[in-house]
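Mods, move this if it's the wrong board.
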Amino acid sequence: MTGIANLRDLLTRNMRQSGIYIAFVLIIALFSILTDGLLLGPRNVTSLVLQYSYILILAIGMVIVIIGGHIDLSVGSVVALTGAVSAVLVIREGLPWYVGVLAAIATGLLVGAWQGFWVAYVGIPAFIVTLAGMLLFRGLTLQVLENISLSPFPAEYSTIAAGFQNGLLGGYGFDTFTLVIFGIAVIGYAVSAWRTRQARIAYKQTVEAPALFGIKLLLIAAVVMWFAYRLATSRGLPNVLIVLAVLILVYTVVTKHSVFGRHVYAIGGNLAAAQLSGVRVKRVNFWIFVNMGFLASVAGVVFSARSNGAQPAAGQMFELDAIAACFIGGAAVTGGIGTVAGAMVGGLIMAVMSNGMQLMGVDQSTQQVVKGLVLLAAVAFDVWNKRRASAARS
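Not the wrong board. Structure tokens:
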């Protein structure tokens, strides 16, 4: 009975996060059946990573914005602008590919500083500032590109999003290097989870039974290594997945273990209390948007590299996909709640649904309807969960 009680506690202690992982597994299973296994084919798994990586990159920054109690409607336009700046320098002016990357990142940082100034120091709501930014940066994109598309990028630039690490350690029918890298990641996760569990025990916090903890690690390891094997039997480890993995690790540490991360949660959770506690709210809000500009520029580089060019209409609706990923992944509409991992799962849910419906031949209009309903259901669940928690406290 103790094991059953621990299992119940494990699943209900954080209902939002537990639910999203279960939903993710069920959605994968559903679309795998509906597509006759095509969804989980090695080539399609690789395509999923390549096609939706820039949305996941945007979601990392967006979840921090949302945790802080803000919203950013301009990221799609910033993706287009940063890609346009890079294309003009590399394709039109013939400069080295890395100059275009650095210029794109610099542009994103300037955009973030611009919007952060108006939000943090002038006090204009982020919704208005970024709505204006969506129009402003789209117009600048048109001016930079002179209303035409530019292509192609040199091979070195395209490799950022379309290249693979394959054959470094050999293998027969699969890439050994990919499996080794994922194996190291699994070991690292297991060590981190074990240390976290020991720390909770030291502070006399509730943890799952050792058997359940071991089963959870084994299940996670099995899923991760299965995913790695799918990549290894296709084209190897995508370069863009390396970029995404580094960003996930860095921003997980930033949000969970840094002073900046704690201050972001404090501002989003209770602004008045944060001010009284000495949190430099204006400074933190400023850097929230600088960080969003930086990640939007990284997404802009990845997207332009994948599309092998820059287009005036690039990045349209990206902001909505990123916002949806965060809310589906457990972020609260009122701020103060959310995780990088949750945003990633939310983004992957959107990616699996989109890709699955494409494989099934579902028309674009129906896809939009389904995405809208899923987003509405996620936010409705957030509201219901808060009311339930409030009623339990009273």
